[in-house]
Amino acid sequence: MAQAAIITVKCQSRPGIIAAFSQAVVECDGDIKDINQFNDRMQDRYFMRMACTVRPEHMSLLSRRLESVAGRLGAYHHLRERQRPVRTLIMTSRFDHCLNDLLYRWRNGELPMMQPVGVVSNHPLSVACSRVHLGDIPFHHLPVTEDGRAEREEALRGIMEESGAELLVLARYMQVFSDRFVRDVEGRCINIHRSFLPGFRGQEPYRQASLRGVKLIGATAHYVTADLDEGPIIEQDIEPITHSDTIEDLVRKGRDIERRVLARAVRYHLDGRVFLNDDRTVVFPD
Amino acid sequence: MAQAAIITVKCQSRPGIIAAFSQAVVECDGDIKDINQFNDRMQDRYFMRMACTVRPEHMSLLSRRLESVAGRLGAYHHLRERQRPVRTLIMTSRFDHCLNDLLYRWRNGELPMMQPVGVVSNHPLSVACSRVHLGDIPFHHLPVTEDGRAEREEALRGIMEESGAELLVLARYMQVFSDRFVRDVEGRCINIHRSFLPGFRGQEPYRQASLRGVKLIGATAHYVTADLDEGPIIEQDIEPITHSDTIEDLVRKGRDIERRVLARAVRYHLDGRVFLNDDRTVVFPD
Amino acid sequence: MAQAAIITVKCQSRPGIIAAFSQAVVECDGDIKDINQFNDRMQDRYFMRMACTVRPEHMSLLSRRLESVAGRLGAYHHLRERQRPVRTLIMTSRFDHCLNDLLYRWRNGELPMMQPVGVVSNHPLSVACSRVHLGDIPFHHLPVTEDGRAEREEALRGIMEESGAELLVLARYMQVFSDRFVRDVEGRCINIHRSFLPGFRGQEPYRQASLRGVKLIGATAHYVTADLDEGPIIEQDIEPITHSDTIEDLVRKGRDIERRVLARAVRYHLDGRVFLNDDRTVVFPD
Amino acid sequence: MAQAAIITVKCQSRPGIIAAFSQAVVECDGDIKDINQFNDRMQDRYFMRMACTVRPEHMSLLSRRLESVAGRLGAYHHLRERQRPVRTLIMTSRFDHCLNDLLYRWRNGELPMMQPVGVVSNHPLSVACSRVHLGDIPFHHLPVTEDGRAEREEALRGIMEESGAELLVLARYMQVFSDRFVRDVEGRCINIHRSFLPGFRGQEPYRQASLRGVKLIGATAHYVTADLDEGPIIEQDIEPITHSDTIEDLVRKGRDIERRVLARAVRYHLDGRVFLNDDRTVVFPD
């Protein structure tokens, strides 16, 4: 039975990259299922994603061949086996619609690459997950205390280490991290922001939207960076609103946008479809 | 043959407004076709639009009855006869897709309430309308000269007066008006901005969008105010973009958004569907 | 404290309906919050929805006044008090995403007019609700047996009567009812169909869509009628697909469409926004 | 100055196709700009599109290398030079919004791969193009006469031959072709149908939509086949409608959908993004 793998490559632009990597897969008797590439001429940077299958006994040969090609081309590359899901820690505060949505999709088989290894909140279980069924997923309460951020982040690092978390999903987690923490999780911490950034940065975006009188509201999933609400955008979507929508209506409509935008962003990330490109992203569609 | 009319009302919130105005129409043997209302509780302000038909010989009676009801309720009201289209002056610079779209829709019967009385540009005809067939519509060239804004606005006022223009549509007109001029055309000058405001105010919004790495671009039609790009929003729309879209691609995709957003805004305005509500609008859907 | 109510009216087209009903509300010291109307000229039929508040002590006066106005105009009318939610029975088979979504929205306060009084399935609890937390909501198993439809419908009628169900929501319930049963629940039984009807009626719409090579898939919420997949449509939506989507992909994307289309249709119905108009509907937007 | 080219490949599924073709481009000192592929496992069929640049002096070498690779792999392939636009004949009847839109986009530089070589209509110029500026584009009037289809098609073949037309775009052309003619233009005759097929096949789709009470209308661009309204779909889109939309409203809203769907389909076709796959298509996004 062939085994599915995803090869991602990032390097300086130069001819022959696809030819070399696809040659490597073919030499291992592999079968290329899907290939996406993007050549960023402005940054002189090249991105490629290759989905393939190989027989299990050829996986380590493939790994060595890719290593050799990447070395020759000066490329950064990654080989991910589809059968090994990504250990994911989900953080939330009091609004559980994104958490609920992610867990439902996971239980329904829509996020096969996600393995939830814990839920973290600054509120106790009864508040953070009042409408969510966690099942066996461990819950961690990290209460917010004055001047306690350093300790809280230390505790969070402990949870990440213990659970082996590779991805951090901020599913409406309302606390700000230190710059140092953010740097340490660069490219593997996804947040959902309640506006079509760069419109309505900061607090209470729906109130801002209502005051400004816009005719659409949105949500933005982005990697977290030290610069708040400025991280590389992975996915955005919007819905129309009208003058008669109250802020409560916007919050309600917003929940639908937030949960689908975050779910898509997490799915793309887990599928190896998202690449950091300085403060932007390359996202290959599925 | 009955005659179509649109009654718009704006007043302080109070009970009985619909009852009173619909009573007036019924007493003139009129037939109410459509009614929309919005009660802005925050501003204590009420908006209503009533589309009706009356027999021509009852039109002046209707006018007097509405006058009387409005006086009694302390309401601002307007009675517009559908058979009298709105004299509209369109301004453009070098990009003619919005102008072309408006004129095509007008010729096609989609904008029966619009009567184009002229096209104004800061470029000569051959530049401003290279792909547009003006037909009988008069063209006016108002070249931009250093320190010449006052004179240019004077000339524009002259054109508006002579043509009897009631509405000014800025169809990608790239010059800024003086505060005084803007105040004088408040609520009857519509601009199309090339972004989903408040994102990407100011110059080169598509370049900004490309640099920020957003996953959607948009356009915004708004009434022009002294505060640039801050006028009351009438209509907005967006389209998805990807990392591989160049600025040229964004400009191309943007043209489609701009023309449909402007056409909708103009149509809503002409149909009496748009009300100013301080720095926001009330827009009744069609 | 004023009490919210919804007045719905359906009658032959004639002038003065809004005036009369709004007069009735004003005379009871009521406050009209929202009003929608539609005059179907082809059918000579008039539809109106009025949302208002009245003081509790005036509610019975309002009821009598409406009765009197309706009698005078020959109108069918209904007065619904917002504080009394609609008793709703949800039916499902094995796919629980719509059920899960409805219950989450209900717990989250998005469907305040819905009171779930039971869940019915042709499968046992462990199959029908494997990912759904029912809480206190009673579950009823109505297994499908050969030639057992009459008995099953008898049992269902029993459950409806006992639970006082006023609305039946088929949240991916895969069994067909008898004509007689369908007639008895006319206008209060909502189904979700997995296609943009009338495209792909019948079985396996996603397989049909894949074979036909369409570029979008959709879902349709409609009232159930004897004529399968031909009932009056309440709400529809679509999403784009591509040549590379497998049937499994369509099913996954379809789940998102199905759940939001059904949730909207149920919300509109509960808010008194949906009127039957022969084999079509009138739906006033929220 | 490098020259842009598009290589399209269609063959039986087998490993090594991308590797072989990209190797060929690299050996000619070419630069791969973009690559898309699709492996249809069900049909055991493989599709690839490669956009590249090569120096003019290497173009014929590239052509030979591709020939050789294609021969070795048993692949059908095509090399199209971007600097040579596709000779396109546009047919219309009385509704000119699609024709007008295509010509505006062409003049605006949005369809650089299209070279309009003529417009054909069953109506005279004054009727077919009353709102369209043809400029230098030749117009041909092919009036419909009883039993005259054979002659009309003969004349059309003459026009195609004389103008060297490679693509036929039916921009709301309301006449039906013979099976023989359709077979002869297979894969190079695009039609726009006024519904989201397979819903509302045949005549008067907007009337059908209104009668059925659907909540969205759409348009479908497809290759023409002998089986009317059953040709392989290239692009579809929809817009929401409501109960209050008259058939005239649907026609108006439909025009916007029709023109953007047809423009996209033509653009995709000209860019080598569309492949026939029996009675479906493979369309690589731009």
UniProtKB/TrEMBL annotation, chains A, B, C, D:
Classification via Pfam families: Formyl_trans_N
Metabolic or biological pathway, per its Swiss-Prot or TrEMBL entry: Purine metabolism; IMP biosynthesis via de novo pathway; formate from 10-formyl-5,6,7,8-tetrahydrofolate: step 1/1
Keywords: Hydrolase, One-carbon metabolism, Purine biosynthesis
Ranges of residues in domain ACT: 6-83
InterPro entries attached to this UniProt entry: ACT-like_dom_sf, ACT_dom, Formyl-FH4-Hydrolase_C, Formyl_transf_N, Formyl_transf_N_sf, PurU, PurU_ACT
Entry EC number(s): 3.5.1.10
Gene3D superfamilies: 3.30.70.260, Formyl transferase, N-terminal domain
Catalytic activity: (6R)-10-formyltetrahydrofolate + H2O = (6S)-5,6,7,8-tetrahydrofolate + formate + H(+)
GO MF term list: formyltetrahydrofolate deformylase activity
GO BP annotation list: 'de novo' IMP biosynthetic process; one-carbon metabolic process
Catalytic machinery residues: D229
Family that this chain belongs to: Belongs to the PurU family.
HAMAP family, per the entry: PurU
Function summary: Catalyzes the hydrolysis of 10-formyltetrahydrofolate (formyl-FH4) to formate and tetrahydrofolate (FH4).
Name of the protein in question: Formyltetrahydrofolate deformylase
Organism: Acetobacter peroxydans
High-level lineage: Bacteria, Pseudomonadati, Pseudomonadota, Alphaproteobacteria, Acetobacterales
Designated gene of the protein: purU_2
